[in-house]
Amino acid sequence: MAETTAARGENRAPSTRSPFLSIAVGVGIGMFTGMYSMGLQKRPVLRPHFSYGIYSAVGAFLGYQVFSIRERRRGRILERRDMLLEKRARRHAENAKHAAESD
Description:
Layout: H1 5-8, H2 20-40, H3 50-102
């Protein structure tokens, strides 16, 4: 089972992920939460209210935190993958060396 380096993904370009989507989703959830709380209080939902800005800011912060957690986790996974690939390469080299010595 000889895998090429392209098949293993070693030649992939580094990811350029943007936190924009996570922040936008966080803002949307924050706005929805603010509007929902106003609706529960039987107050006008679509009129501008200062709490919407607060809910949006909190939502954006939480969205960014989700993004940063995912990026840290992704970094740890890639480090672990590289370590396991190096370990596998060493093991294959040792097995080839022992096979050559036993012949």
